[in-house]
Structure to design on (306 residues):
């Protein structure tokens, strides 16, 4: 499990005065689905382009299967399948022709027919690229990334623009790819996708990795703690709940009292209410999720101040 397949250390890349990637370090282990999660412009694509050998880093180090992607580009391309954000092919090329064309670049490619069947594209084999739906194009781009039988697949915003059904199908596809022994590096800005699909995630903000962990670990790291809400069955005496140390904030939303605070606050609030002869109706307790963690980690200083 600890077998590192991608090792990135203090990576840096600037475009003129824009420092797209400032300081990115991460390790992807064999057999995992690793997510790179960040807002638009955070530096995700630039990072995976350097990992895939398409861009040269200004500083830091990348090793993929022990290879330097820039210096050992030819060998790396035999082992790494890339699916980049926009897959543009000749409009008139058919699905099968595109796969055959890509297969010709590899000494021992996968069988195009079998790959199309696996990816649910068999009946589209003779359909032209410009007649494919968004979801079918995405499937084709994954097929093209896998045709060389890579050990590692890099998928950049695979599900952008897909409807919820097609997105779920794409997730199943990624799971299927991993089950076949391929390590997956997935770029996304969709929280649900990261949460459902990834074994581990690196959150990137402003060109830097600000947190790494499993979705559950990241969610548990959120500073905002728990949210408790309920409808009191009578007026709550002033100061009763504010005085509880674990309560960090109270608001009234459509007749419900909403309290933010620590896990410990829950018990203390209920005891305080009972002491005042009150009951908490329709009680709800929410734990922070990955989205809370993401918002917390990637908030700009201006947003935090607001
Ligand atoms: P998105 O989710 O919007 O695709 P991203 O996290 O993948 O964003 P990048 O595409 O890596 O981010 O871009 C990081 C920063 O670098 C942005 O400020 C972007 O404008 C800039 N940038 C990216 N590519 C280039 C380029 N070829 N020339 C100049 N600036 C670039």
């Amino acid at each position: 499990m600890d077998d590192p397949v991608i090792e990135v250390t203090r990576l840096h890349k600037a475009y003129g005065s824009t420092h797209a990637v400032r300081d990115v370090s991460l390790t992807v282990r064999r057999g995992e689905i690793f997510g790179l999660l960040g807002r638009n412009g955070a530096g995700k694509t630039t990072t995976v382009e350097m990992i895939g050998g398409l861009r040269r880093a200004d500083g830091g180090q990348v090793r993929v299967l022990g290879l330097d992607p820039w210096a050992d580009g030819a060998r790396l391309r035999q082992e790494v399948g890339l699916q980049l954000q926009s897959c543009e092919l000749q409009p008139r090329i058919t699905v099968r022709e595109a796969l055959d064309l890509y297969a010709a670049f590899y000494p021992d490619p996968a069988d195009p027919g079998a790959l199309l069947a696996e990816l649910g594209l068999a009946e589209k084999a003779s359909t032209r690229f410009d007649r494919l739906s968004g979801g079918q194009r995405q499937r084709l781009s994954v097929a093209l990334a896998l045709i060389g039988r890579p050990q590692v697949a890099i998928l950049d915003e695979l599900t952008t623009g897909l409807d919820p059904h097609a997105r779920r199908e794409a997730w199943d596809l990624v799971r299927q790819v991993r089950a076949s022994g391929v390590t997956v590096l997935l770029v996304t800005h969709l929280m649900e996708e990261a949460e459902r699909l990834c074994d581990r995630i690196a959150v990137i903000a402003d060109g830097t990795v600000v947190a790494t962990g499993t979705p559950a670990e990241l969610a548990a790291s959120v500073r905002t703690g728990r949210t408790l809400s309920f409808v009191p069955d009578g007026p709550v005496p002033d100061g009763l709940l504010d005085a509880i140390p674990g309560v960090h904030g109270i608001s009234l939303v459509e007749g419900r009292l909403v309290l933010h605070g620590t896990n410990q606050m829950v018990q203390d609030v209920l005891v305080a209410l009972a002491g005042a002869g009150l009951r908490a109706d329709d009680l709800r307790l929410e734990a922070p999720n990955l989205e809370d963690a993401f918002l917390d980690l990637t908030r700009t200083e201006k947003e935090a101040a607001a």
Remarks:
- The domain at 226-287 is CATH 3.30.70.100 (Alpha-Beta Plaits).
- The pocket of adenosine-5'-triphosphate is lined by residues 15, 18, 20, 38, 40-46, 189 (CB under 6 Å).
- The chain has two domains: 4-214, 226-287.
- The mean pLDDT is 89.
